[in-house]
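Take a minute with the sequence and fold tokens given here and flag any structure token that looks odd. Thanks in advance.
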Amino acid sequence: MIHNLSYRAFVYSTESEEKVREAICTLLPTALPEKEVTEGYYNNQVIILHGKITKKREINDFLEKLRSLKPSAKKRILRELNNRMDDRGNLFLRFDKQRAYLGDLKLVEHGDALHLKLKIAAYPARKKIALEVAQKIFEE
């Protein structure tokens, strides 16, 4: 159902890199994020943790976490599916970093989050077909 999964999180100067790594591992236990250091708007250091998961077993483990979301969260994703997917069949989700650190998965809209991009397995790779596949993920 998913070819691969990319993730990204920003670690601001007021945050602990280790805690953000733990938040990522709540979603993706086998994740080994790469670290990139950049500069923020006010010349402050910002760390970007990012990576990609391609192993089927790890992707299936993540799918189980998605399926265990609260029914209201799954309904929300289904309702917003068209807006969360691009024309290439990439589904974009954001989860609250602080809640993930505490072991709770909460979908959010703001940018200070764990950003996920799921490449939906759709043949041919069209949005319409990818939407149908993604619906199956959240309806189960």
